[in-house]
Amino acid sequence: MPYEKVGQELDRVIGYIKTRNYTDKEKDLITKETIQNIETYINPGWLKYRKSMSTNHAVVESRDYGNYIEGLYGEKFVDCFGGFGIFTCGHHNSEIIDVVKSQLDFQALHSQELLDPFRGYLAKAVADITPGDLQKCFFTNGGAEAVEMALKLARIATGASYFVSMVNGFHGKSMGAISVTGKASYRIPYLPMVQQVDHVGFGRSEEIDKAIRERYAVGGKVAAVILEPIQGEAGVIVPPAGYLREVREICDKNRVLLIFDEIQTGMGRTGTFWRCQAEDVTPDIMTFGKAFGGGVMPITGIICRPSLWVKELVDNPFLLGSPTFGGNPLACSAAIATIKYMIDHDVPGQCREKGAKLKAELLSLKERFPDLIQDVRGVGLMLAVEFFNSEIGYETAKGMFSRGVMTAGTLLNAKCIRFEPASVLTDEIIGIITSRMGEALEDARKKYAAGQLGDEGH
Ligand SMILES: Cc1ncc(COP(=O)(O)O)c(C=O)c1O
Fold this sequence. Notes:
This protein is an alpha/beta fold. It has helices spanning 4-18, 24-42, 44-48, 82-85, 94-106, 117-129, 143-158, 175-180, 184-187, 205-217, 243-254, 311-315, 329-344, 347-368, 390-402, 427-449, and strands at residues 61-65, 68-71, 76-79, 136-140, 162-166, 197-200, 222-227, 257-261, 285-288, 300-304, 373-379, 382-387, 405-406, 416-419. Helix 5 (94-106) packs antiparallel against helix 13, helix 10 packs parallel to helix 11 (243-254) and helix 14 packs parallel to helix 16 (427-449).
């Protein structure tokens, strides 16, 4: 039979998925094969830039729960990385998993022809928890895909073609999303991309006004302004108070749509369900993702004001997009369970309260290590520690990793390390994070004093 050997090989792998009581020999084999497979069939670069390769042995992930991720040999990590904000409701949340398992017992994916009930219930729930008159939803699979839909919707609803987006903003890496992203290193290899984008400085509303008016003066019309209410990838940059409101007023005055990308800031992470609620501002289109699937299923999407659902989109509902898997029943059941969990457990409130405690601890580390830490900033459980240079950051992140605390700093870029742990954080875990970070900083300081780390910025 063709591919018989492949089938036998996959029998063994399915065995690894189904039972987790591996022998030591199996653990060694899985570790060895994982490295080989990534190197040969994915990308050797993946290995180079992972902290999991920086300790004396490679750490292969095996299971997760609460604030923890475990490696194959039982190595235990407090997860401050949080998958860049996926795990707001905790790792492997049993309340969410129960609901998804129930759905899986009946139907995994949708027929694409019969009416899918949970897509509808989810859309209603999203309209109920989002501000103002945001009402019409479109579900997608990834963050960049949601951004694509937001941009296309703005164009079709306004008939205008230009966008204003932010320098250092991040909206994903598909062609449209990268076009409004504001980071040269991600963009240069793909230029030219969508041409009708003017990037302006984040946090300075007058620049948006100027860009819209100047574009108009030369014959172009701006469809929408797109921004993150707090820039995540840029290093947790919180704009001045009142900024979102000013941007709203500028958009209204110029008859331009406002898109808030809440993919990272949404779902409670910054202490309110959505960051825009902190300033009581409603966008015309909002994107959501990451934590939306409860850390269990990938699901993202957009919600917009009903007036944007123009006749063309009603007449041809597949014009905006028709992603095969977008809004599938498993993903919708995960998102429904996530919203319910967030309401029952006041996840935004927990993020607010525990974020304040963690931030206070990080600020006291800054006092202890003023030679290494330049800044501590952020809101709720979307926090960042900025170091004087990337080498200090990486040494600290590596030191924390070897002490069982995972953060986002990588060999590629660790000047600023983001902390986005799950809301199930306890005082004890906050203590573990900060005491181990203190030890890692002590080690980094010794190396720094011995001239073994860079001194950029001093
Ligand atoms: C604000 C924001 N928008 C969009 C994206 C892209 O999401 P994805 O990686 O799921 O495509 C991200 C991912 O980090 C993000 O933080």
